[in-house]
Write a sequence for this structure.
């Protein structure tokens, strides 16, 4: 194999594999140095110059001129050197031109093996560099393999993997189906780039809306938050930066055309589009759609909310397997607990409030009590002090403080009517303990209170 044939072989690879010419030049240089190392044990005195455009490969070997040669790889005799350049002297450096043909069949065999491995490495690196910059981009590919835990989608001779966790549960694909997904992550492994794609990620839903709603792509409408139960339901909060444009209306489209396109792509996933509000009570109420809460009790500092629903609307408010509450909590950033109105009113009288609802209790106090198995006011009333004191960090003073804060909180919940009734009851109890003769004769009102 002469230089021209060798260069042509590499040029064909450059064209077929779409590898940069400078990469091929580096590979050829490394190839010849590898051959020198296999032949002589090292290649420090070798230099390879490659010009693919001209079809030239020049291999040079530096040798020291000596009187008697002990190492032919690094030394050359004065007589031999002077045949090429007559003015050379002992101790000088002689540059010898090495013909690639001298390596014979070894060159071909080594080149095939070496080149094959290097090209694979280059392809892996190029694939990684390409896709790492495309994270967050939607791709469309063909499903080639469907395994139990992974789907493998091919795009331009690249294999992309969709793990089970990134799939929509109720979807079924067959080999040859067209799959649309978002590139979620790219990691380099020993086997090459592991490109993960997803259809269950929140960003996939955001990208679909961006494709269908020009106002989102233009930045007029902004997606603030998304929460999904992939394939079942999703909630998305949007905000318009132009008062003339209704964010929800733009996302839904004329007769629902825009949102229906997204729903079809997600295999019928229900999508609630929520208009942003700076008022937490309005935002949470919208997020709990389709149910309408009767009352909301919100602790902004702790991002905590108690939602009270009519008994008839409790089921739709909570959703199947608490799905509606969970999605509303995730999308708003508030921890939401739901109560039936009858249960909530009963809870007030039975003191079964969750300690997390009492804003005067610190998060540290609530965590300590939770460690002792105390979640509600009722739990606190029934728990023994000994059990609570067994929790590291809980002392007598903390228990007394928590008890006082609970009493103050429950007292603050009493309505004026309840307080008036309690005052009357206290007065009656006081008067019942007093004999009629002990009352001043002029105190007509108190006398009347003692009559049956």
């Amino acid at each position: 194999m002469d230089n021209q044939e060798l260069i042509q072989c590499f040029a064909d690879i450059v064209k077929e594999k779409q590898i940069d010419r400078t990469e091929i030049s580096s590979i050829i240089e490394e190839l010849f140095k590898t051959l020198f190392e296999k032949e002589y044990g090292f290649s420090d005195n070798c230099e390879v110059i490659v010009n693919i455009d001209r079809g030239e490969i020049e291999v040079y070997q530096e040798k020291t001129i000596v009187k008697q040669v002990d190492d032919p790889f690094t030394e050359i005799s004065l007589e031999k050197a002077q045949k090429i350049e007559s003015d050379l002297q002992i101790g000088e450096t002689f540059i010898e031109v090495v013909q690639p043909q001298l390596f014979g069949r070894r060159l071909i065999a080594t080149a095939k093996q070496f080149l094959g491995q290097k090209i694979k490495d280059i392809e892996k690196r190029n694939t990684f560099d390409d896709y790492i910059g495309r994270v967050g981009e939607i791709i469309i590919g063909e499903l080639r393999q469907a395994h139990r835990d992974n789907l493998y989608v091919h795009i331009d001779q690249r294999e992309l993997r969709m793990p089970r966790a990134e799939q929509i549960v109720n979807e079924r694909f067959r080999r040859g189906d067209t799959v649309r997904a978002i590139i979620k992550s790219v990691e380099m492994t020993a086997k090459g780039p592991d490109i993960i794609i997803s259809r269950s990620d929140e960003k996939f839903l955001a990208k679909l809306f961006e494709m269908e709603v020009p106002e989102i792509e233009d930045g007029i409408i902004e997606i603030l938050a998304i929460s999904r139960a992939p394939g079942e339901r999703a909630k998305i909060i949007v905000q318009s930066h132009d008062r003339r444009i209704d964010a929800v209306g733009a996302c839904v489209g004329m007769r629902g055309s825009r949102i229906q396109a997204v729903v079809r792509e997600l295999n019928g996933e229900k999508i609630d589009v929520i208009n942003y509000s700076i008022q937490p009570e309005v935002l949470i109420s919208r997020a709990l759609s389709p149910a309408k809460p009767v009352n909301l009790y919100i602790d902004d500092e702790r991002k905590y909310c108690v939602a009270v629903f009519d008994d008839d609307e409790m089921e739709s408010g909570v959703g199947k397997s608490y799905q509606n509450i969970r999605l509303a909590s995730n999308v708003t950033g508030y921890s939401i607990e739901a109560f039936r109105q009858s249960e909530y009113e009963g809870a007030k009288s039975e003191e079964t409030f969750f300690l997390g609802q009492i804003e005067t209790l610190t998060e540290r106090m609530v965590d300590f009590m939770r460690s002792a198995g105390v979640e509600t006011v009722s739990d606190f009333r029934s728990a023994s002090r000994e059990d609570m004191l067994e929790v590291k960090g809980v002392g007598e003073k903390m228990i007394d403080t928590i008890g006082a804060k609970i009493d103050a909180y429950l007292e603050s919940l009493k309505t004026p009517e309840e307080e008036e009734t309690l005052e009357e009851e206290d007065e009656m109890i006081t008067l019942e303990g007093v004999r009629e003769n002990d009352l001043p004769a002029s105190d007509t009102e108190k006398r009347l209170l003692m009559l049956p």
Observations:
- The longest strand covers residues 178-189.
